[in-house]
Amino acid sequence: MNDFTPSEHGFRFRNWFPGPFRGLCGGMCYLAEDYWHAGIPVPENEVAPTVGSALYFAILRRQADSFATGRNVTKLLEWMHTDRLEELTERELQKLSEPANLYLVYSTAAQSPNPTRNHQVFAYAQDGDALRLYDPNYPMRDDIIVRKEKSRWVESAAGISIPVHGLFLDGHYRPAKKN
Questions:
Q1: What average pLDDT score do residues 68-85 get?
Q2: Scanning 8, 48, 61, 151, which has the fewest C-beta atoms within 10 Å of its C-beta?
Q3: 85: how many CB neighbours lie within 10 A of its CB?
Q4: Cα(42)–Cα(9) distance, integer angstroms
Q5: CB 135 within 8 A of CB 167
Q6: Could you tell me if 18 and 24 are in contact, meaning their C-beta atoms sit under 8 angstroms apart?
């Protein structure tokens, strides 16, 4: 799909922030993509930026953008409440022809009504039946994938398998405009 690699183009710090917003996975994916599209290296921070710093606010702004004025959040809530996740996921994957942000549905409404128990990643390459991911929870890792195993989807990350009930494309990413 392209030449993006998490070890080169992703942030070096883990998706865990001090303050009220602990996880900003969508913002980290969007901002890493912005740097990549602009041909600019990501900042070399090895720890998450402090609340109030310019980088923190840039990630937070892009997190808000990743919600696409509520459209992606609404879709996530709908997907958390449906029993058609497998069918819907297969339909979404047919649309995938280039790098794209994905929402991973880790938790259905029956498990937890909290949408923050789900996750956003960037699918940067397709490798057979697997999608290679930039997952901000695992910085500097080029080996994170999501694939179907038997009849279920899993994200393989750092030697563990995380069940994924469904996944859908975030079709709203646009590179940030330069100021």
A1: 92
A2: 151
A3: 18
A4: 6
A5: no
A6: no
